Amino acid sequence: MISADTPVQFLKGVGAGRAKVLHEYGFNTAGDLLWFFPYRYEDRRYPTPIADLGHHVDTPVLIRGRVISAHARVSPVKRMRIFEAALEDGSGAIKLVWFNQPFLADQIKRGDRLAVFGAPRLSNYGQLQIESPDWEKFEGDEEEEGSIVPIYSKIGNIPPKALRQIIRRALESLPSLSDPMPPEIRRRLRVGELVPAIEALHGPKELTGEFLGRRSPAHLRVILQEFFTFQLALRVRRATEEVRVKKRAMTIDDAMRSEVRRILPFRLTKAQKRVVKEIADDLRSDRPMYRLLQGDVGSGKTIVALIAAILMIRNGHQVALLAPTEILVEQHHQRIRQLVDGSLVVAKATGAATAGERRTLLAGLRDGYIQLVVGTHALLEEKVAFQSLGLAIVDEQHRFGVEQRQRLFAKGEMPDILVMTATPIPRSLALAMYGDLELSVIDELPPGRRKIKTAVRAPSHLEKVYRFIDGEISDGAQAYIVYPIIEESEKLNLRPLKQGFEAIRKRFPDRQVAMMHGRMTPADKEATMQRFKDGEIDILVSTTVIEVGIDVPKASIMVIMDADRFGLSQLHQLRGRVGRGARTSYCVLVSDLEKDRLEIFSKARDGFEVAERDLQLRGPGEFLGTRQAGALRFRFGDIIRDHHLMERARDTAIDLLASDGVPRAEEIVRQLLGMDVAATARD
Fold first, then answer.
1. Is 586 within a domain?
2. Does a structural domain hold residue 655?
């Protein structure tokens, strides 16, 4: 009898070799495999007759048939190795072609029955063929023919069909599976039971629009279980933290207020003053601060964070500021040192530090000599210890996972926590995503920040744009030119950075042109950025590595190539790199595509307006760049597309905590995490 706890090595079809592979991918029991859902499905009930493929040119179709010939050859032109097979189904035959896969000669033989999925296309000779199709062999086992077949992500070297058979064995454990979600919670969330949901996701009876759109009852059960687990875990943790009392007492006196006024480069806006008061009240509270500071590009979040840091340091404690890139760390470090003018001991921690610099840093933090440290992930290393960490600040917090933030917070005794983001998030979504944080918003730009003139231009108008750039540089300006990819790609018809850099150098022979991208070493990136800031470089040709936090006052022109490839919020971040000085600044979006979307962006000045439009236009997964490391990851749930479900989960978690109390909520969290559904909640 198979149960959810049955080790994978005891499932039929899993020997020692496959068990080792499954273990490497984190699958130890039959129950683990239940949560490994298909990423797509193939409807093999209705194969297209080969005779009808002429009606489906360039459209992926399923065909089935028998191999009537199979051979490998070498192309005489490019010396490319090609494997060809002919498939016949009784209505006709078609050629299948694979490039640079000579091993297929050992796998596909004459007489084999294949299911093939691909798009028929016309060859140079006008004949239909299918190039590089997905294929699967049926070795006398036709049970999957005429059914909807789940397609799973690859696990090591386990063949797709063998993997499906292993998961079918694991599904035999479903009768032993207990539902971790109590009936009253299911009623509140309006979801069904777990076992039917898992059965339906692994073996749907029909592929309806609701199912393919991940809106079936089965999908909603998994999405809401993940979201509810996430929300309840956050709120239990917050409720547990709130009963703890900080041992440090904070005072704010006139001397501190005078010091803050002395370092300010400009008068605070009303929004900044409001946020400073919210943070100061938190610091003086006997409960630890958990606050999300959200502000548009250039709204002055760093100044607010520095004020909080000064208050903490003058009360005898240390402050750590965690940033995602070495460039941003260098900029924060320089800016803060310039503002405090020697009144604080400020250090930086990056992976580029020498052994001597590292020893000095570790000793300074441990002994309390260093009062404020700005660092990358290097701050999270085990050897980094503080004498008294009172305030932990995380910049561009969506670049870090929950676990990474927790490693920093654990370096102090209940430090106050301030996390910052320049990604404008609609308030309802922010409250749903960051349920354990109070929310502060700087919704006003400092005086002197100029509006950035934004225009959309076709590639055919680039020469006119270049003439404009040349004139502006003669007048003392600097320019960014951003490309979406570094090198040429066969799959993407985009302008690559390296080719663009050479073209820009030829077009501007009398200007200093430099290149920057993510594959450069941190030291090279830092040196290039410093030369740009010092005015030694006129045009910086870059990828989006300059997206976050770079501050060069003379840089007043931003040109974005293939702008249609970027989300509106990312375009807004890039646009925010200019307009930081006294010059009138410009952002030029170069694209022949999605003109309407880009025109909408060009007219939107406020980041929150951009964010709302991006939610409507860009769709799931792109708005926050959720593919980046550290973003919230759920199996089916998408925090943008499904934000209303996240709000339902949040409200249900709040109600449960209020009605049933922390002990009961903790018990339910333990049950839900035992199912191992939400990677983020697990952190």
1. yes
2. no
H/E element, 527: helix 522-533
86 found inside a domain: yes
Q: Kindly report, residue by residue over 256-275, the tens digit of the pLDDT.
A: 999 999 888 788 989 999 99
3-state secondary structure of 275: helix
Domain that holds residue 511: 452-604
How many Å apart are CA 586 and CA 666, to the nearest integer?
Answer: 53
Helix axes 607-618, 568-575, angle to 10 degrees: 150
Q: Which helix (H) or strand (E) holds 459?
A: none
The residue among 555, 523, 561 whose CA lies nearest residue 542 is 561
Answer yes or no: do 61 and 129 share one domain: yes
Residue 392 and residue 420: Cα distance in Å, rounded?
Answer: 11
Query: How does 277-301 read in b/e, with b if 16+ C-beta sit within 10 Å?
Result: ebbbebbeeeebbbbbbbbbbbbbb
Same domain assignment for residues 579 and 562: yes
Tell me whether residue 469 is exposed, middle or buried, using C-beta atoms within 10 angstroms of its C-beta: 0 to 12, 13 to 18, 19 or more: buried
Phi-psi region of 239 (alpha: psi -120 to 50; beta: other; left: phi over 0): alpha
Beta bridge partners of 70: 85
Q: How many domains does the chain have?
A: 4
In a shared domain, residues 20 and 163 = yes
- Which of 251, 395, 353, 255 lies closest to 312, judged by CA? 251
Q: Are residues 312 and 380 in the same domain?
A: yes
Integer Cα distance of 587 and 556 in angstroms: 8
Pairing of strands 148-151, 40-43: antiparallel
**Which single residue is written with the structure tokens 């065909």?**
63
Determine the angle formed by the axes of helices 194-202 and 160-171, rounding to 10 degrees: 160
The whole-angstrom separation of Cα 474 and Cα 126 is 56
Query: Which pLDDT score is estimated for 628?
Result: 31
Two tokens, residue 21: 């592979």
**Please, are residues 157 and 21 in contact by the beta-carbon 8 Å criterion?**
yes
Q: Are residues 517 and 600 in the same domain?
A: yes
* Nearest-angstrom CA–CA distance, 96 and 67: 10
- Specify the residue for token string 């059965």: 199
Q: What is the pLDDT of residues 574-607, one digit of tens each?
A: 888 888 787 899 999 998 887 777 887 888 766 6
User: What would you report as the CA-atom Rg of the chain, rounded to the nearest whole angstrom?
Assistant: 29
d(CA 557, CA 454): 10
Strand partners, 321: 374, 393
**Burial class for 647, CB neighbours closer than 10 Å (0-12, 13-18, 19+):** middle
CATH code of the domain containing 328: 3.40.50.300
- Are 166 and 31 part of one and the same domain? yes
Predicted TM-score (pTM) above 0.70: no
Identity of residue 124: N
Q: What is the pLDDT of residues 213-242, one digit of tens each?
A: 889 999 999 999 989 998 888 888 777 766
Place of tokens 């063949």: 159
Q: Cα separations (Å) of 416 from 140, 363, 388, 390, 413?
A: 65, 23, 12, 6, 9
Q: What are the C-alpha distances in Å from 389 to residues 88, 242, 373, 392, 547? A: 72, 19, 10, 7, 30
| Mean pLDDT confidence for 515-522 | 84
Final residue of a structural domain among 587, 604, 621: 604
Which of these three, 559, 577, 604, is where a domain ends? Answer: 604
Under DSSP, is residue 12 helix (H, G, I), strand (E, B) or coil?
Answer: coil
**Spatial contact of 601 and 568, defined as CB atoms under 8 Å apart:** yes
Tell me the two tokens of residue 154: 């690859």
Q: Rounded to whole angstroms, what are the CA distances from 245 to 28, 49, 290, 392, 491? A: 41, 72, 14, 17, 56
The answer on 412 and 304 residing in a single domain is: yes
Q: Which of 430, 422, 367, 357 shows the shortest CA–CA distance to 394? A: 422
